[in-house]
Design a protein that fits this description.
By secondary structure, the chain is mainly α. It has 4 helices and no strands.
């Protein structure tokens, strides 16, 4: 799990750095940071769900994680980003990109996990 967490943090940091070229204002970059932290927490929870259900039910665990990600994305867009007064475009685009990139990482980790 530690390797997964380290790879996830590195991936989100790299993706955030790339996104910072498109989102240049201080408010946008704050939204990137908040989205990155939230995406890391959500994805680590999804990794934990996959480990909990085991290899025999990996698809069930992945599906549960996907439902959780979609739910958090909706809640983030409708409630939390507005409460935190974040620019919605930067917050939602970055959160969705972080989740997508980390889902690709999750697929690789599941495929090569021993």
């Amino acid at each position: 799990m530690a390797r997964s967490a380290l790879l996830l943090v590195a991936l989100i940091a790299l993706t955030g750095w790339v996104l910072s070229y498109a989102f240049r204002t201080d408010a946008d970059r704050h939204a990137l940071l908040v989205s990155g932290v939230l995406a890391t927490a959500v994805q680590l929870t999804a990794f934990g769900i996959n480990r909990l259900v085991g290899r025999q039910k990996a698809l069930v665990g992945w599906g549960m994680g996907a439902i959780m990600r979609g739910t958090v994305l909706a809640l983030y867009g409708f409630i939390f980003a507005r409460l935190l007064d974040l620019p919605l475009t930067a917050a939602l685009v970055s959160f969705a990109v972080f989740l997508f990139a980390s889902m690709l990482l999750e697929s690789l980790l599941l495929a090569y996990e021993s």
